[in-house]
Amino acid sequence: MARRRTLSLILAATLLSGGTVALSPTGAGASPPRPEDEYRPVRGPSAPAEYRYLQKTVRGETLPRHAYDTAAKAGARLPAVGGRWTSVGPTNIGGRITSLALDPHHPDTVYAAAASGGVWVSRDAGNRFEPAWPDGWTQAMGAVATGPDGTLYAGTGEVNPGGGSVTYEGTGLYASRDGGRNWRSLGLRDSGAIGAITVDPADPKRIFVAAAGSLYNGGGDRGVYRSTDGGATWQRILAGANEFTGATEVLIDPRDADRLYAVLWDHRRTPDLRTYGGVGSGVYRSVDGGATWARLAGGLPAAGPEVGRIGLGQSVSDPDRLYAIVNSTAGPFAGFYGSSDGGDAWTRLPDTPELTTSQSTFGWWFGKVWVDPDEPQHVHVAGVPLLTTKGGGRTWTADSSSTHVDHHAMIWDRRHPQRVYLGNDGGTYRSDADGDGGWVKATHEPYTQFYSVAITPQDVSRISGGAQDNGSLRSWGGPAFNEYLGGDGEENLINPTDKENVYACYQYGNCFWSTDGGETMTYFGNRVTAARRNWFTPVVFDPRDPAVMYYGANVLNRSTDGGRTWTAISGDLTGGPGRDPIYTNYGTITTVAPAGDGRTVYVGTDDGRVWVTRDLGGSWQLLLSGQPWVTRVVVDPRRADRVYVTLSAYRSGSHRPYVLGSRDGGRHFHDLSGTLPEAPVNDLAIGRGLTLYVGTDQGVFVSPTGGGVWLRQGRGLPLVPVDDIEYDGTNHRLVAGTFGRGIYAVQVP
């Protein structure tokens, strides 16, 4: 039964002296970023991850354990209506790969775990990847591995935490005996994220799992686990120092299966703070199969609050040789160490410029060391570039040209001399030169993470979108896309009256326009008034005239000439900058909704405020405050006083609405969430009649009655977050930008 709750939200009596407050434009003198900064599209997880975490939580509260899993089950129970979703690409771009594994019985078969895109398999040496994981299960992945009997294992939940991200948690460990066609659960459901799976090469029933645990909740299944019966039962054999200490690595000595190494890591996140290190972080060793463990010292950093994520690698050809990269709690590089006696003694190797800068300020995004199985002095280290040494760590070279940046996975295929597979933020690569260059990218890997999607009724084949790690992408027909603006892709727009007039942004509102379909781009991010800009800065067309545009910073900017010039039409519409010293761009506009009357504009902010002006900025009225992050405000193009607001947050045990609707210009709002699953709502689109569509972290839902009663829209859409949906009434289609499986489309009335 739909929940109907009227919110009496005329807040002037409590927050403002009158029903309307006039704000003169301020910040006109705010200095734009210097040109050398404007055009530096730095890719990295800190800000986008921070953006996603803050967007989906409420200050002072954590994400309830299994919240996504519970919401997914609720969504799956809703009836599905409409046609079947089809993937429209991109197939050639890829996305973040967290782990790789080889099939021991089938040459040229490699498995890849996509961060929020499931498990994939290539049977042609990494050229094409096809799905090997159920579309209806969680797509969040941390690790894949194979046993000597060919069993494929998948550990769900991504261990790379980002800058406080909603790193999507998983539902435990799974196994497949037929190459990913069928799967069964092996438990560890409370593991949150699984960093590594290692199977005894001499005993396929002996399995070790490094469980990192939930990033947001203490306890659960975290530490190193062992099964001696193929996953039927589990025993925790190494626990951490506290409830937020988890395991990220577990290695079996190739010479002695009772000799084990593990890495533990203290890491947690609250809405106000990230702590990616602590006294529980360290390298551990067991010589009795895991019955007892000792924290290794002998030159490694002593236990302390500044010890962050550690990556550990062991030589197969010389098992006494170990390497470890250590990063600080704050993120920067803190040392590279080598041991030649199985970990008793460690030597800090030279801090070369290539090595020390490789981790940038976010070493917690990497934490991986890979040793050539045939050459113990040949080592690769994950970083922004891929680092390589052939001298055991004394000198390094950085390969930042032939692959995408930000590396996470590597595996040697010893059946093919010098063949190596690599996974990074751009997808999967193969080298037949021992990983020392010669990288060839996979040609088919449709697991891109999209923040936005843009379409035009003029040409259904024309589509673009902003993608995490992979810039602004476009296709003027077919599933192959190309990047036309770098950085982390954010807002993308196509002029509805001129398909060659396109707009694209990278992080923090660095936006460009083009009149030739993106072939040449002109920067306008330095022409607006802004003291703070959101990671995803909203830029929108006026529905009456696309030459009129709006740009949301901490103030609202308006252009009447397609973005060439801008004027601030508000003061600061937020509560000011946040208190977090890391995320300094809090206190910004997140969504802008101009009405069809040419005068009314609604905006929403990251600190839970919704405003309206009915005179193009002459005065502003506060409609809502104290809400979670406002993901979208949408105004009915036929009625300026019919407005919808979507929110994105979890509150433990709360039934607060996630979709609000007003028929009187925001004076009163009604809860329209009804039968929606309790999950973050990211976008809303208005269809024909009373039809509403919403994109959520659990897919796309439709209400033919204007809210309250919701149904699943269509069939065939994977269980993946949908950040943006676009409705095309002319061509009767709905297009969804997913955060992990690319772009999908479905025919609608």
Structure description:
With 749 residues, the protein is mainly beta. It has a domain at 6-31 and 448-747: Methylamine Dehydrogenase, Chain H (7 Propeller), CATH 2.130.10.10. 5% of the residues lie in helices and 38% in strands. It has five helices and 60 strands. It has a five-stranded antiparallel sheet, with no helix packed on it. β31 and β32 (427-431) form a beta hairpin. The longest helix is centred in the first third of the chain and has 11 residues, at 67-77. The chain is globular.
Give the proportion of residues in helices.
Answer: under 10%
**CATH architectural category of the domain at 6-31 and 448-747:** 7 Propeller
Number of helices: 5
Gyration radius (Cα, Å) is: 26 Å
The CATH topology of the domain at 6-31 and 448-747 is given as: Methylamine Dehydrogenase, Chain H
Task: Outline the biggest β-sheet.
Answer: 5 strands, antiparallel
